[in-house]
Target: Alkylphosphonate utilization protein PhnA, putative
Amino acid sequence: MTTLPKCPSCSSEYTYEDGELYVCPECANEWAKTAAETAEADSVVRDAFGNLLSDGDSVTVIKDLKIKGSSSVVKVGTKVRNIRIVSGDHDIDCKIDGIGAMQLKSEFVKKA
Model:
């Protein structure tokens, strides 16, 4: 038995197939089967050197990063532990000692 993906709108488990579409009976959302398959493939996040990143990894910053709206800077070589992968332009969610919670782009880090 194949498992169908959850609804991207309401996270309902009761989706069903209708031709080339998946349909959610709870919120009436419809999406293409190919869109669901490409979303899974796009969720792969790699660092500046092509290493695969996943939740809980430690990374090192490879460039001085100015913090928007602040005079603080994240210096080269800053180690960030226990990252979390999120979707969006800034795809790493983390806490940096002395600065706090922030989001980073994976292109400015390397896996430690």
Q: What stands out?
A: The chain is about 10% helix and 35% strand.
